[in-house]
Amino acid sequence: MAQKRTMTLNLTDAEMNALQELAIRKDLSKTAVLRQALRLYQLVDERLANGEKLFFEDDEKKQSELVVL
Which site among 16, 40, 54, 65 is 20 to 30 Å from 46 CA-CA? Predict the structure, then answer.
């Protein structure tokens, strides 16, 4: 198992509320939500760096491209 390290994270009230709501909705700890978010961001960043595109599609098959700066 990888060694775990501790860090301090300062969030605004809005960011903390969003994190708390996601944790409750997903039945996960806030730490688990942040770990998942980091893994997702890493994956998206790698794929965009490789020239791939990321789209969201609704039920009517309308697509929106995600642009990350």
Answer: 16
